[in-house]
Amino acid sequence: MTTIAICADAVVPADISIPGMRIKVIEDLCDYPSRLADSVSDDEDRLVLGVHGSRYNLGSAQAAVRRLGFDPLAIGLVDLQTVGSSEDLTNRLAASAARTLMTPKPGPEHVKMLMPDRSTRRALLSIGKPRYVGAPAVDDSTCRAGDGCRACVDPCPAGALSWSGGEIQYDKNACITCGICVTACPAGAVANPSATPAAIEAEIRALIEGADEPPGIRFRCREARVTAEPGWHQIEVPCTGMLTVGWILAPMIMGAGSVDVVSCSDGGCSLRNDRRLTSTLADVATTASFLELDLDECVNISGPVPDDLLGPCASARIIEILAAHSLPSSTVDLQAADIGTVSIEPASCTACQMCARVCPTDALASLESDQSIELSFDPLACTACGGCVQSCPEVERGAITLQHRVNLDDWRLGRRTVRKEEHSMCELCGGPVAPKAMLDRIQSMLGDDADAAATMTVIAQRCLDCRGR
Amino acid sequence: MTLEQTSRLRQGVYRLLGAGFAAPNDEVHDAAGEALDIFDALGLYEFAFALDVADAVTALAGSRPADLEAAHVALFATGVHGVLCSPHESTHLGNPRTGDVARIQSELRLAYRRYGLPIADGEPDMVDHAASELRAMSLLCGSEADLRAAGRPTADVVARQTEFAFSHMFRWMPSFANQVIAARADRVYSSLAKGLVSLLDHERQWLAVLNLSVEAGAS
Known about the structure:
The complex is a heterodimer.
Chain A: E1 2-7, E2 21-26, E3 46-51, H1 58-67, E4 76-79, H2 86-101, E5 111-113, E6 132-134, E7 137-138, E8 161-164, E9 167-170, H3 180-184, E10 190-191, H4 197-210, E11 216-221, E12 232-237, H5 245-254, E13 258-262, H6 274-290, H7 314-326, E14 331-333, E15 341-344, H8 354-358, E16 364-368, E17 372-377, H9 387-391, E18 400-403, E19 405-407, H10 408-413, E20 416-425, E21 432-435, H11 436-446, H12 450-461
Parallel strand pairs in A: 1-2, 1-3, 3-4, 11-12, 11-13
Antiparallel strand pairs in A: 5-6, 7-10, 8-9, 14-19, 15-18, 16-17, 17-20, 20-21
Helix pairs in contact in A: 2-4, 5-7, 11-12
Chain B: H1 3-21, H2 26-41, H3 50-61, H4 65-76, H5 89-93, H6 100-115, H7 130-149, H8 155-183, H9 187-218
Helix pairs in contact in B: 1-2, 1-3, 1-7, 2-3, 3-9, 7-8, 8-9
C-alpha cells in the first residue's frame, strides 16, 4: 500500500481519493514532519509527501521518514507550490506514486551528503541536520569501461568521473549529482535512484494518462522555482543539462500536448551546465523543424507507444517514430545530440577493429572469419559517444569520422557493412595472418630498404604460430 | 544536533559493529537490545546510515547466541579453501609470501600505540581484525566527543580518525563486508555487514565535513 501524506495548508479537496492509495492530510506537516509517525502504519511500503517547497526542511523530513523505516531517496515528493488546481493535485500525487513504484531501493553508494556551503567557527560546536541527495553509482556488471568506454567521463562537469585501468573511478565528494552521467552512459550502467529514466518515464506517462486534455510536460531543474501554470505539469530533474534530444521529445510520443524545459540558468547554472543545455535545445529545435513538428501541438502516433523511451539509445528511436508520422526523407546535422553516424574511409582504415571493440552499444560490430573481416554499423544503436574515434589508431589519417547526423534513409537500411577487408593468408598453414590493409600500412611505415623488406616478408607471409619454423 | 552528540553516536555504532564481528558473547547481545534507543537519542535517524545500522542492531539483539557462534565459525574461521570471509586486514591487503602480514600488523600496532589506544594488547591474532580496527575508531570518536565536551580543539583527533580510516579501514573493510553479504550465510552477519558498508560510505563524507570545520576553525 502507498500512503500519500499532504500538508493540510494546501487546498485539498475533501473527497480526494486515488485508487490503491491511502491519503492522509496532516496539519503543519511541512513544519513538523515528525507528525508523519501518527499517520503512517507499519504495512506501508511506499510513501509520497505533498509539501511546500519553501517551508519544507529537507533534513528534518528525511530524518522523520527514516524513523518510519522508509529510505528518503525512494519516496515521492510533490511541491504543492507547483500545483495549480485540485484536479492537478490528484494527478500529480498519483504520478509521483507511479514514479516511486519504479524507483529502485538506493544503496549506500547512491547517497551523497550535501556539504555545508560555508564552514564557520560556529560549525566547531554544532552542525545543521545533514541533508542527502541521490548520487550516481556505476554498475560494474554492465559498465563497458573494461572495453575502453569512457562516455561518462568527458561530459561530467565536476570532474568526478575518471577512467583508469579499465574501470570508472568515481569521486563522490566532487560529484554535483547533476545526472549528466546517467544519460551519457550508452550502456545504462550509471544509475541515480533519484532520477532513473524508468521512474521519470513512469511519472510522465501517469501525468498524461490522468489528465483530461493532453497536458504540457515541463522539465524543471531542481533549483528552478516555477509557479504552477494551468495545463502544465512539472517534471523535476537534477539538472536540465542531463536532458537529451530524446528525453525532450519523448513526452510528445507519450501523448503530451506540448513540451518545455525550465532551467535555473537565468543567472547562470550553478552546476555549470548551461552550454550543454543550450546545444541540446538547439538540436531539439533543428530536429523539430526537420520533422515538421510543432512542440506545442499533439502528435498522433499510429500503433502502440513503445516502452523504455528514456533509456540508452532512445533518441534515434524516438526521432524514427516521429519521422514515420510526418514522413520527411532527408538528412539533418545536429550539434551534439546522442545520435551518430559513423563513416569509415577504406583507404585509411587498417581493419584493426579497435572501434568495434570499444563501442559500448555494439553499433559498430565486427565479424571475423578465416578469410576476411567485416565491420558493420547500426545507426539506430549509435549514441555518438565518440569512443570509436578516440580509439582509432588511424584517426589522423581520416580512417573514421563521427557526425551527429540524422539520416533517415540510412536508418531505414538498418545495420549495414561499412568495411570489408581480406586477410593475408599464411604460406605454411594457410591460416589468417592479418588484414591486408594492416600489413600494407606496416610496410608503408617501415619503408623500402632491405631490412624492412626482410621483416615484412616474415610478418606478411607467416602467421604467429608459423613464424618460428 | 551537536557535534559532540554525533561523535558519541559514531563511537557507539563503531563499538557495536566491532563487538558484533568479534567472537559472540552474551554481553554484546544484551547491549544490542538497548543500543537502538541510545542511538536514537543521539540522533541516529538524522543520518543516511540509520536504516542499515538499525537493521543490524535489531538483528543482533534478536539473535540466539548459540546460532551466532556457529555462524561466526562458519564465516570467519573455517572454509575448504581458507577462511570464507577473512576478518583480517592483512589477508585482504597483504601477500603473506612477501612479509606483508607482519608489515601491516606492525603498522597497526604502531598506530594504536601512537594514538594511545589499548587495542589487542596480548592478543597478536587480533591486531588487524575488523573488530579491533572498529574498536580503535570507536575510541578515537570517543576522544573527539570528550574534547568537544571540554571545549578543547579537535583537530588532532579528527586528523587521526582520517588517517586511520583512509590508511586502513576504507582500504579493505568494504570488500570484507561485501564478501560477508555475498556469502549469505547468516542474516545477522549480513545485516552487520550492510550496516558496516553504509557507515563506512557515510564516514568518507562525514570526515570531509569534519576536516572542513576544523579548517574553518583554524583560519
